[in-house]
Design brief:
By secondary structure, this protein is α+β, with helices and mostly antiparallel strands. It has a domain of 164 residues: Ribosomal Protein S5, domain 2 (2-Layer Sandwich), CATH 3.30.230. 22% of the residues lie in helices and 24% in strands. The protein contains eight helices and ten strands. Strands 1, 2, 3, 4, 5 and 6 form a six-stranded mixed beta sheet that branches. Strands 8-9-7-10 form a four-stranded antiparallel beta sheet, with helices on one face. Helix 1 packs parallel to helix 2, helix 2 packs across helix 3 and helix 7 packs across helix 8. 46% of the residues are buried.
């Protein structure tokens, strides 16, 4: 039977629990080390197969048909669909319906996650049968975070996003808040005060002891994953986000959010290169908010806006995920 459509397909966001800039290549790309963790704040996509080869995106609000946000016509999910069509030689196309819930410019990988979900979904809808590694390689040309979402495991990520080691991360809640302002990644990396020489983390030196302790991985299957690999930071606060000082200089609201969360949870850190900040919130919730379940939120459910946020800020109390909901969609 020919598959005609895939509905309610999630594209979860991520947090960088730490992000170190350890160098710079001759071509200008920065070399990074980071711990990426999936969370249940997610966009939702619906895919319908077309026979005429056309790729079209239709923007939806979380619970209706009105556009949720103005996105560029040639966004990452459209580019991902076109790249997969061209690389595979298929004559098929797709209507992509996107309900955008993850804020843009936040450093949470929303666009990259949309692209990865598009690759995984169209690989199935078009009957291509590509393996995960081939999809990830195609995704790297679209964005450095795309391979992580394709692989679908919490992971230690190195290089420019191409070196991925799946790691088990203990279950954790995170309070995630983004101010009204967004950040341009390029402007942060161009900042003259950006530190680019943080001492590299030697992964094998931390597994089984030291500052980061080993535990069984819950997401096996990626080539090169050490058995029993985990990142469990003592006290939950390993490392830094090397981009945060530059980001706070470019966008003072990042520092405001960090202070706001620090006052409530005793910890805060910027994620990625965007303006969102998170806190580990294992022991509490924001006033008036119930604890979340581990299940992905239904597409019709509105975001759980945190009580007491200043005007223009958006936030959620999020649950970390063991793995991507589409992890089993390809081998």
């Amino acid at each position: 039977m020919t598959l005609r459509a895939l509905h309610d397909v999630p594209a979860p966001a991520k947090l960088n629990l730490f992000l170190h800039v350890i160098g710079r290549r001759d071509d200008g790309y920065h070399l990074l080390q980071s711990l990426f963790v999936l969370i249940d704040w997610a966009d939702r996509l619906h895919f319908e197969r077309r026979e005429d080869g056309r790729i079209a995106r239709h923007d939806l609000a979380a619970g209706g048909a009105a556009p949720a946000a103005v996105l560029p016509a040639d966004d990452l999910c459209v580019r991902a669909a076109r790249a997969l069509a061209q690389a595979s030689g298929t004559t098929l196309g797709a209507d992509i319906h996107l309900a955008k819930q993850v804020p843009t410019g936040a450093g949470m990988g929303g666009g990259s996650s949309d692209a990865a979900t598009t690759l995984l979904a169209l690989n199935r809808l078009w009957g291509l049968g590509w393996p995960r590694e081939r999809l990830a390689q195609l995704g790297l040309a679209l964005g450095s975070d795309v391979p992580f979402f394709v692989h679908g495991c919490n992971a230690f990520v190195e290089g420019v996003g191409e070196r991925i080691t799946p790691l088990s991360v203990p279950a954790q809640r995170y309070a995630v808040v983004k101010p009204a302002a967004s950040l341009d990644t390029a402007s942060v990396f161009r900042h003259p005060a950006l530190r680019r020489d943080t001492e590299p983390v030697i992964l094998s030196g931390f597994l089984g002891g030291g500052a980061l302790q080993g535990a069984p991985t819950s997401c096996p299957g990626n080539a090169g994953a050490p058995e029993g690999a985990a990142f469990t930071a003592i006290g939950g606060g390993f490392g830094t986000n090397d981009l945060q000082p530059a980001a706070e200089d470019r966008c003072p609201e990042v520092a405001e959010v960090a202070r706001w969360l620090q006052a409530r949870f005793g910890n805060s850190r910027m994620t990625g290169s965007g303006s969102a900040v998170f806190s580990r919130a294992q022991e509490g919730t924001f006033p008036g908010q119930a604890a979340p379940s581990k299940a992905m939120p239904a597409p019709a459910d509105p975001p759980d806006v945190l009580a007491g946020l200043p005007a223009g800020w958006v936030g959620r109390l999020c649950q970390g995920l063991d793995q991507h909901p589409l992890r089993g969609w390809t081998g």
